[in-house]
Design goal:
2 domains; two-stranded antiparallel sheet; 21 helices; mainly alpha; 2 strands; 542 residues
Length: 542
């Protein structure tokens, strides 16, 4: 099995398994975020999501990768930030104590891992270590705090980081990929996927400082690794676009606090997301707006990665200045959003279609039929299964069967994880086995996935029995899938990986709709999952 796929799946599964457990013990640990004047949530929410992200990321690295000084430095730094962050989430340690933890983590990477900035924008000669290393320490701590302070709305910091991480994977892969850069990015993406399952608005869990500091640390680590070692042909100024909006946001916040005579480190409501909320944008609209700005910056980092430093810096300043100028104008004129900016304008006109029995029932039954049929037929069509796939499938088959027979399994996180892993296995193995051949069959496959996507959309929109609310995470996922399909080069586009990813996303959304239907344990989807896992295990082991 591709090691990156193992890292991604294992990180996501570990994260999804750890977070529910931590949510149960959060009240006893004091890791609860209470509502306050500057916060947007109205109910207490546990701050343990970061523990799931970090553990989900660290364990696969420890288990699957050989260690060297750089990887050990990253793991030590991550563990330090986890301890300090979790302690702050439970006891509010204060900024100076957090700076100590951040300093230990960053110093470990810079001086023990020997990772530091020598290539600097606008300079032809490399920086000497006596300047480059202290600058790297300062810059990494700055990025950690930038991401930490951007974590103000459900899914915001995680979504911004996810976009940056995917761009880093892409630019690393363009030059053949670096083992550690790709691995660290993939496990962090996996940990985020597991976390964001619980963090869509209204969030069931927050990542807390343990998660946001880890994300900032990881992004800074990977951005430096990418530009200083992995792909030195890219402009070092690309880091600005990669990290994106959080950098200018924290700088503006500090400026406003200083000029306003406020405590530099005391939390206030003058971040970009707070200011958008104050202009009347809804929570999900604010998140989607920031996602869009971040996506523009990150996409620009990919498209302009080899351009002159001044072009990247000018673009970054132009985009960020435009955002800040528009916000300031809105505040000075007391402009308010009219609401519903991002929602489809014709939603009201389509509301009457909800009363159509055919529109409410047929798409749902199509999904119920198509998903298990896909699982069974695709499993039967796969003739070669790698042994590691087969072993994992056998374990999942046995555990799922025991739960279905003896447990009280409903639509639990465990069932979701098993179903999602099965879907990923099937789509991946089908691309590797080149199952579909011929123009007619290929067109039939396209028609099947198009019909399934349409049925899922209609079910989400019009079914009364299934509560599936579209969230900013869904917009983010759609953007990522589309971007992977059209990015230049041979990393994603032009091969079966992008096609397989699009198929997997459609199927995962289909499974999510079925999981929310509230039916019993034994249903067509669980039967199809059991059969597929059993077949894959038998094909690979026998």
């Amino acid at each position: 099995m591709n090691i990156t796929l193992i890292l991604l799946i294992s990180a996501a599964v570990i994260s999804m398994a750890v977070i529910p457990l931590m949510m149960r013990v959060a009240p006893f640990l004091g890791m609860i975020d209470l509502p306050s004047g500057r916060k947007v949530h109205e109910e207490p929410v546990s701050r343990v999501g970061g523990i799931g992200i970090v553990i989900g990321a660290m364990l696969p690295l420890i288990l699957w990768l050989p260690g060297d000084d750089l990887l050990r430095a990253f793991l030590i730094g991550s563990a330090v930030l986890l301890v300090f962050g979790a302690a702050d989430d439970a006891r509010e340690l204060g900024h100076f104590v957090k700076f100590i933890g951040q300093g230990i983590a960053v110093l470990t990477v810079v001086y023990f891992g020997d990772l530091w900035v020598s290539r600097f924008p606008f300079l032809e000669d490399p920086l000497p270590a006596s300047i480059g290393k202290p600058f790297t320490v300062f810059a990494m701590i700055g990025v950690i705090n930038a991401i930490n302070h951007s974590d103000g709305l459900d899914g915001l910091a995680g979504g911004e980081a996810l976009l940056s991480l995917i761009a880093i994977v892409y630019m690393s892969a363009l030059v053949g990929g670096d083992q550690y850069a790709t691995a660290v990015a993939m496990v962090t993406i996996g940990g985020l996927f597991g976390f964001m399952r619980f963090n869509t608005h209204p969030a069931k869990v927050f990542m807390g400082d343990s998660g946001s500091q880890f994300l900032g640390f990881t992004l800074a680590f990977l951005a430096i690794l990418l530009t200083q070692r992995v792909n030195t042909a890219v402009s070092p100024a690309v880091v600005l676009l990669l990290i994106g909006l959080p950098i200018v946001d924290i700088l503006v916040v500090l400026y406003l606090r200083i000029t306003g005579g406020m405590n530099w480190f005391k939390a206030t409501r003058n971040h970009v997301h707070h200011r958008l909320l104050d202009r009347g944008f809804a929570h999900y609209e604010t998140v989607v707006i920031i996602y869009s700005i971040q996506a523009l910056l990150v996409t620009s980092s990919i498209l302009l990665r080899y351009q002159a430093d001044w072009i990247l810096v000018a673009l970054y300043l132009a985009v960020c200045s435009s955002v800040l100028i528009l916000l300031s104008l809105g505040e000075r004129t007391n402009w308010k959003s009219g609401g519903g900016l991002i929602a489809a304008p014709f939603s009201a006109a389509l509301a009457s279609l909800r009363e159509s029995p055919a529109l409410r029932q047929f798409p749902k039954w199509f999904v119920w039929t198509a998903v298990p049929v896909f699982m069974i037929l695709s499993a039967l069509s796969i003739t070669e299964v790698p042994r590691d796939f087969a072993i994992i499938s056998a374990v999942l088959f046995l555990v799922l069967l025991v739960e279905l027979v003896f447990g009280r399994l409903g639509h639990t996180i465990f069932l979701r994880a098993v179903v999602y892993v099965t879907v990923v296995f099937l789509t991946y193995l089908m691309t590797q086995n080149a199952v579909v051949e011929g123009v007619l069959l290929h067109r039939g496959e396209i028609a099947f996935y198009a019909a399934l996507a349409l049925a899922v959309g209609l079910t989400i929109r019009y079914s009364r029995e299934i509560e599936f609310r579209t969230t900013p995470t869904d917009y983010l996922l759609v953007f990522i899938v589309v971007a992977i399909g059209i990015l230049p080069g041979e990393v994603f586009s032009g091969n079966q990986i992008a096609i397989g990813l699009i198929k997997a996303v459609i199927l995962i959304y289909s499974c999510e709709v079925l999981l929310l239907a509230g039916v019993g344990k034994w249903n067509p989807m669980t039967v199809g999952t059991v059969f597929a896992l059993g077949w894959l295990a038998g094909t690979g082991l026998l």
